[in-house]
Amino acid sequence: MTLEIITPDNTLFSGEVQLVQLPGLDGLFEILNNHAPMIAALGKGRIKLQKSDRKDHFIEINGGVLEVMHNKVLVLAE
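and the corresponding structure tokens:
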């Protein structure tokens, strides 16, 4: 699936991933390939993403909004 993490200033990440773990307002949740469409608010924390190399990569955010649709995950982060 495709993940794009953008802020008002720049793009933090854009590429293919296997898994994305996000800090929701009520706790952590994960998005995997072929996830159902959804929109969610995000809290302060770390986004964990796993690329095809199966290594975990982390990006800190201060909150934001998530949209999942057609195997694309879009994060509008602060």
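(Above: one complete record from the training split.) The chain has one domain: 2-77.
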